[in-house]
């Protein structure tokens, strides 16, 4: 039989600490954060396991090399050239050995296949000169050796192929589209507020570079875990969300930071969510911005996501674009700043069924705004009255007093000192 201590935890067992009048200090446990599909940086939070067909990656060598990390790419780049030089150095050494060029006791007057190639080290240097086309002129082949001419042609062809593949991979790796996406920014939080008498989900996007993103398109998707009526559990159920410019194919002109708006209507997956239900939900809103880089013509894509903790209900983005001396100026220090606005806490469905909720919310907001203005005015008046009273007291304290003197005849003589 197990002891009592292993069955009942110590914090639930009867002890003098439980009946003590001194309250115990609560113990707070760290909250386990829910995994998100897309990180704030745009990286996909997905792990591939138990892939049996690893050979498929070797069938697409170029893409595999481009997807590798820089340290592995540089190692492969260096080892490819080094191995090719060593391989052909071995061929040159074997040709020289078979022709007798390495024999120190060869007969005078016999034509050599190479000049100044009498060891493996010199064969290795000759291999580098041939493939890299340096050509110092100290070592060369002669027309007396057809085998050497064949190896020369073969090494030139293979060297050109290696140069084309490896340099192409390095160029593609340095000019990847996600490098341009680093300057496409999204607001840290999303907001839900009333715009044109409708609840709207809004985010802000911007481009830090002056070069344009041509044919920029913004797509929104809501990812959540759902269960079908048949009992099938779909862990990643993607639902497309239409933005405000859906008629124009979501194409935007990203000249200055824009606020992307999604009207929460009956076709929206957020239609039945209130402010309280949104905080308890496990949905994730994925934002995808695609376009063509104006300078290079390469397609780029920037991604981010918003979980329920990053969606602020009843907030609105502050304006950041102003006109200064005939030029529009953008203050990126306020890019993610928001302000509180009057917004019903109910869902969009309830707001459509009862439009009076919005009217009452706006009226309450107007009354509270008027009351705050009255309080500010009264506080200002009180402060001004206090200042005036204090100034009067100071003036009265600084006033010169009048002193009365009596003359010897007994008549009053007033003098001021």
UniProtKB/TrEMBL annotation:
A Gene Ontology term for the protein's cellular component: monoatomic ion channel complex
Pfam families in the record: IRK (PF01007), IRK_C (PF17655)
GO biological process, one term: nervous system development
Protein's UniProt name: ATP-sensitive inward rectifier potassium channel 8-like
UniProt site positions, description: Role in the control of polyamine-mediated channel gating and in the blocking by intracellular magnesium: 163
Transmembrane segments annotated in the record for this chain: 74-95, 148-171
UniProt xrefs under SUPFAM superfamilies: E set domains, Voltage-gated potassium channels
Membrane topology classification: Multi-pass membrane protein
Highest taxon of source: Eukaryota
GO MF: ATP-activated inward rectifier potassium channel activity
Ranges of residues in domain Inward rectifier potassium channel C-terminal: 184-354
Family to which the UniProt record says this protein belongs: Belongs to the inward rectifier-type potassium channel (TC 1.A.2.1) family.
UniProt keywords, alphabetically: Ion channel, Ion transport, Membrane, Phosphoprotein, Potassium, Potassium transport, Transmembrane, Transmembrane helix, Transport, Voltage-gated channel
Protein's cellular compartments: Membrane
Main location: membrane
Catalysed conversion reaction: K(+)(in) = K(+)(out)
Region (Disordered), start-end ranges: 366-396
Residues in Potassium channel inwardly rectifying transmembrane domain copies: 38-176
Species lineage: Eukaryota, Metazoa, Chordata, Craniata, Vertebrata
Compositionally skewed regions (Low complexity) per UniProt: 380-396
């Amino acid at each position: 039989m197990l002891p009592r201590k292993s069955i009942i935890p110590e914090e639930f067992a009867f002890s003098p600490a439980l009946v003590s009048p001194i309250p115990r200090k609560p113990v707070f446990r760290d909250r386990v954060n829910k995994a998100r599909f897309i990180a704030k940086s745009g990286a996909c939070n997905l792990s591939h396991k138990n892939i049996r067909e690893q050979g498929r990656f070797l069938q697409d060598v170029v893409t595999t090399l481009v997807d590798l990390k820089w340290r592995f790419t540089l190692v492969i780049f260096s080892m490819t050239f080094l191995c090719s030089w060593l391989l052909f150095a071995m061929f040159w050494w074997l040709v020289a050995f078979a022709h007798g060029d390495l024999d120190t006791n060869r007969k005078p007057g016999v034509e050599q296949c190479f000049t100044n190639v009498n060891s493996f080290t010199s064969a290795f240097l000759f291999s580098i000169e041939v493939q890299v086309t340096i050509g110092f002129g100290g070592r060369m082949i002669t027309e007396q050796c057809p085998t050497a001419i064949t190896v020369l042609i073969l090494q030139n062809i293979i060297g050109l192929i290696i140069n084309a593949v490896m340099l192409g991979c390095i160029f593609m790796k340095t000019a990847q589209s996600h490098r341009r996406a680093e300057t496409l920014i999204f607001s840290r939080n999303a907001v839900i507020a009333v715009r044109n008498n409708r609840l709207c989900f809004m985010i802000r996007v911007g481009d830090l570079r002056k070069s344009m993103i041509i044919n920029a398109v913004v797509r929104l998707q809501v990812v959540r875990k759902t269960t079908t009526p048949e009992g099938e559990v779909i862990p990643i159920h993607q639902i497309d969300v239409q933005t405000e410019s859906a008629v124009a194919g979501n194409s935007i002109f990203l000249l200055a930071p824009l606020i992307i708006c999604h009207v929460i209507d009956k076709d929206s997956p957020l239609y039945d969510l209130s402010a309280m239900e949104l905080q308890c939900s496990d949905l994730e809103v994925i934002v995808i911005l695609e376009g063509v880089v104006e300078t290079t013509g390469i397609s780029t894509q920037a991604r981010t996501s918003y979980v329920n903790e990053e969606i602020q209900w009843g907030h609105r983005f502050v304006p950041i674009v102003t006109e200064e001396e005939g030029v529009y100026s953008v203050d990126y220090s306020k890019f993610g700043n928001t302000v509180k606005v009057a917004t019903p806490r109910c869902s969009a469905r309830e707001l459509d069924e009862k439009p009076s909720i919005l009217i009452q919310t706006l009226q309450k907001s107007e009354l509270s705004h008027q009351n705050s203005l009255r309080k500010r005015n009264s506080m200002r008046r009180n402060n001004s009255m206090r200042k005036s009273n204090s100034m009067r007291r100071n003036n009265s304290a600084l006033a010169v007093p009048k002193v009365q003197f009596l003359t010897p005849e007994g008549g009053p003589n007033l003098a001021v000192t």
